[in-house]
Amino acid sequence: MDTLSADHTGPLAFLFTDIEGSTRKWEQHPQAMKIALELHDEILAQEIRCAGGKVFKTVGDAFCAVFGTPEGAVTAAESIQLRISKANWGETGELKVRCAVHCGPAIERDNDYFGPTLNRVARILSTGHGGQILLSQAAAQGLECVRSSLSDLGEHRLKDLERPERISQLNVCGLEQKFQPLKSLSEFRHNLPQYHTSFIGRQSEITRIRELLEGNGIVTLKGFGGCGKTRLALQTAADLLDCFSDGVWLLSLNTLSTGQEITDQLAAVLDVSVPRGQQPLDFIVRFLRQRKLLLIFDNCEHLIDDAAGIIASVAAGAPGVRLIATSRESLRIDGESVIEIPPFATSDQACVGPPESVLLFLSRMRQPQPATDQDLKLIAGICRRLDGIPLAIELAAGLTFSLPLPVIAERLDQRFSLLAAGKRGAPLQHKTLRAAIDWSYDRLAADEQRLLRLVSVLKWEWTIESCEKIAAVSGFDRASFLQGHSSLVEKSLIMPREEYSRFYLLETVREYAGELLRESGEQAHAFDMTAHFYLDLAEKTSSSLFGDHFRAMEIFTGEHMNLSAVCDGLEAEGDAEHTAILARIICAMYEYWQAASLDGEADARFKRILTKKKLLAKEKLAWVLANRARNLNSLGFYEQAENAALEAYNLASGCNDQAAAWAKLTHGVSLVYRGRHADALEQYVVSRELFEKTDDRLGLASVIGNIGGVYIETGRLNEAEPMLVQAGELYRQAGDFRRLAYVMANIGQIFMLRDELEKASLQFRDTIAHLEKHGWSCFVDLGYTQLAVIATHKGDHQSALSYSLSALKAVLRTQTLGVCARCLTETAEIMFRVHRESDAAVLLGAAATVEELLNTTAPQVFFERCLERFAPEDKPCSVEVRSAFESGRELRLSDILHFLESVGL
User: Fold this and answer.
1) What is the 3-state secondary structure (H, E, C) of 756-802?
2) Phi and psi, residue 617, nearest 5°
3) Of 533, 514, 524, whose CA–CA distance to 470 is shortest?
4) Which of 298, 345, 442, 571 has its CA 20 to 30 A from that of 309?
5) How far apart are CA 728 and CA 49, in angstroms?
6) Entry pTM
7) What is the pLDDT of residue 209?
8) What is the dihedral of CA 4, 6, 10, 16, to 10 degrees?
9) Phi and psi (nearest 5°) for 192?
C-alpha cells in the first residue's frame, strides 16, 4: 500500500466511519461509553496510520481519513472491523462500526478536505449498518487486488439526490456478512427527483429546518430567486425519508395557474380519488388526518394566496403531516416558521476551507478542477461578483466548457448576456439568470417595479429614511413608499442588514434594475434627484460636524459609499451643471475627509475635478482650489498648496470674501511649513480682516490661532498666549473641538518653552483627554509628541519612547504623510538614545520613503543627516544599521504597526 505523501496528486481514497446506535449507548452507559470511545479512537487511529492513511477530521464518534490508494483505505477498514469485533467493550456491549470508502478528487486546505467526493462518501456511509464495509463503484474499480470477496449490492439512489451509485460490500472472513437492505432512497416511498449534480453546503440550514419541523407543521424557505431553495428543500426531505412512514411528496407549482390546479396535483401525488360531490380539499385533509408524511410545496410565490390557504388547511386538519414551502415571500399564515435562505457566502473568513460558493463552482465546472491558487482566486472573485447566487454560479461554471476563467471574470459586467445559455430541462424561472429575476419582477405591482428601478441608483447601503427622501422627490408619497419598500424586502429583492437598520441590493439585482431604469427613460431624472438629495445631505451634515460631531460623522460614514458613487456619476456626466453640483459635494465633504483621515481620497477627487475647471464658475472654482490647498498642506505638499491658494485668492478676490479669506489663511499655513514666518504673518493679517468682514467665526478662530502659532515659533511667547486663548474661545463657541485641541497643545508648548514642565505636562494630558472625549483620538499625537519631548528633556528616555510610540501609532491611522514622516523621525531619535539602533534605522527608512514622496529630501541625504543628529559620536554606523534602513525603505505605512509589534514595541 502507498503512504499518503504531502505532494500526492490525483484522486484520493476516503474512508469514513461512525458508530451505529451510539446515542442510545451514551444515554444507557455514559461512563462506560466514555472508556469505550477512547478504545475505539485508539483502534481507528492506529489502523488508519498503519495502512498509510491520515485522519483529517473527527466529529463525535465519526472518523474521516484520507489515503493515497483505495487499497490502503480498504485495508484499514478491514483491520478496524476485525479489531472492533475482538475487543472487550465491557458494559456497553460490542460497538457496531460502519465504514464507507470512495475515491475521487478533493480540495485540500488547512489539513482538511472539501468537495463532492466527501459528500458522496458520507452519503454512502449513511445507507449502511453497523459492522458493514461499503465501497463505491470508483473504490471497487480502483482496487488492484481484493483480499476478501466483494458482494455487488446493486445501484442505489443516495440521499444526496445525485446519480445512483453502484455499491459493493466488502466481506471479511470471520465477520458478519448478511445485513439488512441499505437505507437508500430506493427503500422509501417518495417522488423526489434525481439530480446529476452533488448537493453543496447548507448544513446549518438543514439542521434548522429539521429542528423546526419537529415542533411546527409548516416551514417556509424564503429567498431570492436562484438561491437554491428548491434544492435545499429536496435535500432536507431526502434526509428525512426514514422519519415519515407514509412518504415524502413533492408538488411543483411553477407550471400551475389556479388554486384548483394545486388541489388536483396534491390529489394526484397522493394517489387520492375524490368521490363525486365531495369538496376535494376537505376530502384530502381527511385522508391525511391519520397519516405521517412530509409535503413539499415548491415555487409558491406566483400563487401565494391559494398555496397559503391550502397549506394552512392541511396543517390544521392533519397533525401528522409536516410541510415545507419554498417561496420568494412568506405565506403569512398561523404556524408558519420562515427561514431566510441567503446566497452562498463568498468570503472564507468565517469558513474552514473554501466558501460554499467556490465549492459549488468547482463541482459544476466542465473542465478539470483547477490546481492553482490563481484559479481559486479567480473563482472566488467570480462568485463575489455574482453575489453568491447558486443559479448564477452554476451557469458561470458551465461556461468553463468553452471559456477560460479569466475571460469569464472579465465579462461579468455583462452578466445577463454572458449567462444567457440556459439549463436544458430546467423550469423557466431557472433557465437563465435574467429569467430568475424576471419571474419575480413580473409579479410586482407597478409602484413596486418603479421603486426597484429607482433604488438601483443607490450603489451602496441605505437607511429607510434616506431612501424615503429620495423616493419623495421622485413622486412617492410616504404610504406608497413604505408599502413598496416593505414588499420588496418581503419578496427578497431588497436585502436587509442585521436588525433592518440598513438595506441594499445584490449587485445582480442592481444591474438588472439599472438596465430597466435606462430602458424606461427614467435614469437621468432619477440620478439628478439622487444627486441633489446627497448634495443637500452633504452640506447640512458638514455644517453640523462642529456641533453634533458624532451624529454627523455617523451620517457621513454610513453614506460615504453612496456619496462616492454619486460623485463618480457626476464626474461621468461631465457637463457644467453636474460639475457644479460635484464641486459643492466635494467642498462639503472636505471637513469629513479631514476628520476621517481620508486625505488621499480628497486629493484624488480634487485632482479629477480640476481637470474640468473650465466648466466651473469663478466662485465655485475658488472654493475647490482653497480646499484643495488645505488638503495639500495636510498631505505635506506645501509648495503645491501655496500655488493652489494663490490661484484661489485671485479668483475669489472681489467676488467672495469668505473664499478669499480661507485662501489667504491656507497660503499662510503653507508658508509656515516652509519656514517663512514673516511672509505667513502678512497673509494672516489679510485673512483676518476678510474673516472679520464676513463674520466667519470659525475662520477667524483659525487665523488667530495660526498667528499665535507663528508667535510661538518666533519666540514671541507673551504675545502668543492671549491670541491662543482668544482662538480657543472662538473654537469652543463654534463647536470645533478638533482645532480647539491644537490651541490647547500650543498653550502647552508655551509652558514648555518657559521651562514650566509640570504645567506643560498637565496641559498636554488635558489635550489628549479632550481629543478622546470628543472622538478625535486619531489626533492624540498632539499631546503624546510633546510629552515625549518633556521626558527626553528630563533624561527619561524609556518614557519618552513610550509617548513617542503612542503618538506614532495614532498618526499612522491617519496616513497623513507629513505628520507621519515627522513622528517616524522623532520616534527613531529616541530609539537611538535607548540603544535600539537597528529598529530606529528601520523607522528612518520608512520616514525617508515618505520624505521622498513629498519631494523634500533624497533618502540617503536624509539618512546621513539623521545619523549626524542621532547616532553617538563614538559609535560609527554599522553595516547592520544601514541594512535595517534599506529594509525600512520597503515598508508601507500600513506595515509599520506590524513591525512595531514584531519587535515588542
Assistant:
1) CHHHHHHHHHHHHHHHHHCCCHHHCHHHHHHHHHHHHHCCCHHHHHH
2) -65, 160
3) 533
4) 442
5) 75
6) 0.66
7) 92
8) 50
9) -70, 135
